[in-house]
Amino acid sequence: MADELPTMTLKAIGIVRNEVKERPARRDWWAETVSEIVIDPSLTEALDGLEEFSHIIVLYWMHRVASGEVPLKVHPMGRQELPPVGLFAARAPNRPNPVGKATVRLLQRQGNILRVKGLDAIDGSPVIDIKPYLPGYDSVADAKVPQWIANR
Amino acid sequence: MADELPTMTLKAIGIVRNEVKERPARRDWWAETVSEIVIDPSLTEALDGLEEFSHIIVLYWMHRVASGEVPLKVHPMGRQELPPVGLFAARAPNRPNPVGKATVRLLQRQGNILRVKGLDAIDGSPVIDIKPYLPGYDSVADAKVPQWIANR
Fold first, then answer.
1. Chain A residues closer than 8 Å to B46 by CB
2. Residue B107 has pLDDT above 70, yes or no
3. What is the count of residue pairs from A and B with beta carbons less than 8 Å apart?
4. A137 touches chain B (CB under 8 A)
5. Any CB–CB contact under 8 A between A96 and chain B?
């Protein structure tokens, strides 16, 4: 089947700028991080109206994650005491396609620059897409998660 | 700046299978759609533990969207009576990188096949990534949206 699976090419629409040069170990570390997303100026007009949303979804490329073979099992949240789970059951950055998805607060939009809070992307990460966060579409009221997450 | 923006290559990890051959006009049309996501069998083990989540995030490639130039402004939800907004302030499929992000209910996992409900991807869409839905990370309690969404 792998032979039939297509490849696709992405072109970055912008770049993340912040003070974070290395990925920290814990995801909750990022909550207060403020970043600038600098969008290709030729796409500035495509941001119009985004400032009416309090939150946006950022898809970005985790460019510093080692490429090549990825482990099929990982310890959730990097915690060695937790039994390994499949990588698609975890949010570890090391994935077949290292695409990150973050929902972040939009603090300000100024021309082609978005100022956001809580983006877990290091400085220089290529941005793939920006989408408005739609509560009725992007959130789930009754989602169930495994015990190892509920307990953390 | 566009010259400095990198390109990246994705390799599909699987394919969407369902009865939907053409994208319907309305997004809410998809709510009851059941799809199978057939994952590359070499990645089956990477799905272990996913069945403990009620909902998953699917990143997929909207392969039937016209490639090439995209309009910078669109009518939200395809409704001509609404004033155009920037494409990044809308969820229209025609984007510089046609990557869709859907949060869907996981009905069943059987080996390398995920049965899901509510995925707004047509038959044959390449799948880029599967992530567990984490309420504390993926949802926002107090998100604000513009009037044209609140009123719909």
1. 72-73, 86-88
2. yes
3. 243
4. yes
5. yes
For residue B127, what are the CA distances in angstroms to A53, B42, B55?
A: 28, 15, 16
Partners of B1 on chain A (C-beta within 8 Å) are 38, 40-41
Q: What is the DSSP string of chain A?
A: -GGG--EEEEE--EEEE-S--S--S-GGGGGG-EEEEEE-GGGGGGGTTGGG-SEEEEEEE-TTS--S---SEE-GGG-TTSPPEEGGGS--S--SS-EEEEEEEEEEEETTEEEEES----TTPEEEEEEE--HHHH--TT----HHHHT-
Per-residue pLDDT tens over the stretch A13-38: 999 999 999 888 777 788 899 999 99
Q: Search chain B and give the residue with CA nearest A75.
A: B49
> Tell me, what's the ipTM?
0.94
Q: Which of A8, A101, A103 sits opposite B10 (nearest CB)?
A: A8
